[in-house]
Amino acid sequence: MALRAPDSSSGLRGRCSVPGDKAISHRAALFSTLALGESRIEGYSTAADCRASLAAVRALGGGVLNVAGELVLRPPSWSVGSSVEPLEIDCSRSGTTMRLLTGLLAGRPQAFRLDGDPQLLRRPMARVAEPVRSMGARVELSAAGTAPLLIRGGDLHGITHRPEVASAQVKSAVLLAGLQARGETVVEERLATRDHTERLLAMMGARLERESAGGSALIRVMAGPLQPLILQIPGDASSAAVIAAAAALVPGSDIVIEGVSLNPTRIGFLEVLVRMGAEVDIEVSESPDSLEPSGTVHVRQRQLRAVRVGAGEVPDLIDELPLLGLLATQAEGVSQVTGAAELRVKESDRIKGLVDGLRALGADAEEQTDGFVVVGGTTLLGGVCDSLGDHRLAMTFTLAGLISRQPTRVLGREFIPDSFPGFDECLGGLL
Ligand code: S3P
After folding, report:
1. DSSP assignment of 98-149, as one string?
2. How confident is the model over 326-348, as a mean pLDDT?
3. pLDDT of 297
4. What confidence category does residue 348 fall into, taking pLDDT thresholds of 50, 70 and 90?
């Protein structure tokens, strides 16, 4: 589907919803394998990445049934495999699937081989392998610290882990291993990351405590029985951010996104949009103590101003930083993102990919080791930009095409459904 640039006088208009939250969907599928009975999930994401987690549940012997739009997840029997060959699990392109599985399988006395697409096999896995090894699991990686990852789980003991990088995936892997370990496992995060794992495990009745102070967090977990999940997953916060960015970018836009996750650890991008001058109204529809707050986001386009984002804010908008780079091209002043070196090890090197792509369209942008600088007030001329097979870059460059003077061709748009199936239809419905 070709997206046409909107009529400059009207911009994007209307209401829309986005697929179920990707981060919550992965966790619902994988955590259900540890529950004492069948979990029931509404709103599970249809993203390709989340299908990889369902495939993993099946590979482990769990049941995945779609009953009248609701996903019914039956945990595996977890009987020890008789084969000496490791059980193969294909994680496709999903880093969340592979990293969370590493923690989940660390307590199982059986061998597993976690494999995936070439893109995933380039990403760092030592960050999850090392802590679960120190808990007692055997994990083998390539010399470069990448998958295929061979894991033989076993008798685990609790540890205190202070991740070197702010990563919700690392935290989640250690907590999942901790649920199967003797004694207490503690994760101390210097910078708190998205807290879906803590919320879902608490909902399942896990013995878990979380303390947070001044941007950091400490989570303790102990082994114990887990109840099945009964869950309605709200719309994906990061997909909503793409639509919000489109509205903030295209003159005259006024849109509403309904039923979206408003988890405070996921709305950093909306907060930055407000700082940049967009008009953003957030309405929480669930009671504040519900598992995952959700509601509507109303965005009206206004002249944007430059923004600075530093390390402390990065975890709450890590996946939205490419969008921020694009918006910065249209803001008054020079924007800068620092403390975001993690972007270099996502589905692509997102710092290089973003800067190269924006420059190909005529923007004034520069790479820095741990972020980027973008000069605002530029006209995007259009051209060809390569999303490097990265769904988030592909969506960012597609939005750039909405305001570029000449047509913009984005290479790698076929990967957009990794996180946002129906993106073209959703955006097209507002044009
Ligand atoms: C995710 C955490 C983030 C994010 C990724 C999903 C998660 O990764 O970039 O898209 O679901 O926990 P890191 O934990 O590696 O920062």
Report:
1. HHHHHHHHTTSSSEEEEE--TTGGGS--HHHHHHHHHTT-EEE--TTS-SSE
2. 98
3. 98
4. very high
> Could you tell me the pTM of the whole model?
0.97
What is the fold, at CATH topology level, of the domain defined by 22-232?
UDP-n-acetylglucosamine1-carboxyvinyl-transferase; Chain (3.65.10)
Q: Which atom of ligand 1 is nearest to the CA of 197?
A: 12
Average pLDDT in the chain: 96
Annotated catalytic residue within 21, 319, 349, 386: 319
CA of 96 relative to ligand 1 center, distance in Å: 7
Contacts within 8 Å (CB) and 24+ apart, 162-166: 162/187, 162/188, 162/189, 162/190, 163/127, 163/131, 163/187, 163/189, 164/127, 165/127, 165/342, 166/190, 166/191, 166/192, 166/193, 166/314, 166/315, 166/342
Other beta carbons within 10 angstroms of residue 308's beta carbon come to: 15
Reference 295, options 263, 254, 248, 247; nearest CA is 263
- Whether ligand 1 lies within 6 angstroms of the CB of 167 is answered as yes
In this structure, the residue with its CA closest to atom 10 of ligand 1 is 319
Q: Which of 274, 238, 276 is nearest to 257 (CA)?
A: 238
Determine the pLDDT at residue 92. Answer: 98
pLDDT tens digits, one per residue of 372-386: 999 999 999 999 999
Stretch 166-181: mean pLDDT, rounded?
A: 98
Give ranges for CATH 3.65.10.10 in the chain: 2-20+235-428, 22-232
Say how many Å lie between the CA of residue 378 and the centre of ligand 1: 31
Could you confirm whether 155 is annotated as catalytic? no
Query: Phi, psi at residue 397, to the nearest 5°?
Result: -70, -30
